[in-house]
Amino acid sequence: MENPKITWLASFPRSGNTWLRFLLCHILTGKAEPSSHVEQAIPDIHLVRDVALSKSRPNLVKSHFRLSASMPLLGCTERAVVLVRHPLDVVMSTARLFCRRSGGELSHYETKFLRSFVESGTPYSGPEWQGFGSWAEHPTTWLDQSQFPTRVIRYEDLRNDTAKVVESVCQFMRVAVSPDRIDHAIVDCSAEKMSKIEDRETELGARGIFTRGRAEDTQLKFVGGGADWRDHVTDEQRATIRDKYGAQMARFGYEV
């Protein structure tokens, strides 16, 4: 029998990977709670390098790494789903995350991370994000190669027509799934339900995606809606973003 292979769920940070993991975990296993179950079913390569691969079901693994020869488990790759999101929504989402973690005024983080993105192509360049590349570079490394097939999906499309996008991902993975099963997963993985899971696990200090075993160590306050960046970007910043990243944004149907 052929050795088991990996389907990567690849994305730049703050692009909706967690939500996609919950949806696909529910479809593959029939549930997406507790979050530790999702973490076991679809592991995070940044936390678990020795991934146990199954021969009886698809092996999905999350990654924020840019694709490179040094990426862990690259030789086990079968295909990759590449999730993208409007870069300025990524910036605003990053600002909210750091504000929740560190406190202070949200506007401070919005200004800081927007300036960083305009200058370097990434809202944050700390050690936790090493190896991810810039927003523009990340999807290019995955999509502009011929080693294995890829399917790109936009976070915005996942929000606006979740059933259609999930169905297309399942078809790409060669997973047969009924419309009822997809609908059930969407209901159980709604923003409201995921927020309740996070609140409950954070309060209990339960180890999982939302915490690392400490009640004060919140990893993600799930927010299903998009961020409104339009009131934060100056005309000068818009012009710089168009000059630097306009071609890549247009590739995915984004404007600024």
How do the helices and strands line up, and which of them pair or pack?
Elements: E1 6-11, H1 17-29, H2 35-41, E2 59-63, E3 77-84, H3 87-102, H4 106-120, H5 137-143, E4 150-154, H6 155-160, H7 162-172, H8 179-188, H9 191-204, H10 235-251
Parallel strand pairs: 1-2, 1-3, 3-4
Quick summary:
With 256 residues, this protein is α/β, with parallel strands linked by helices. The chain has helices spanning 17-29, 35-41, 87-102, 106-120, 137-143, 155-160, 162-172, 179-188, 191-204, 235-251; strands at 6-11, 59-63, 77-84, 150-154.
Judging from the principal axes of the Cα atoms, what is the shape? globular
Please give the radius of gyration in angstroms: 18 Å
Derived from helix and strand composition plus strand pairing, the structural class reads: alpha/beta
Largest sheet: 4 strands, parallel
Structure overview:
The chain has 256 residues and is of the alpha/beta class. Helix content is 45%, strand content 9%. Strands 2-1-3-4 form a four-stranded parallel sheet, with helices on both faces. The protein starts with 5 loop residues before the first strand and ends in a 5-residue tail after the last helix. 35% of the residues are buried. About 3% of the residues have low confidence.
Key structural traits:
256 residues; alpha/beta; four-stranded parallel β-sheet; 4 strands; 45% helix; globular
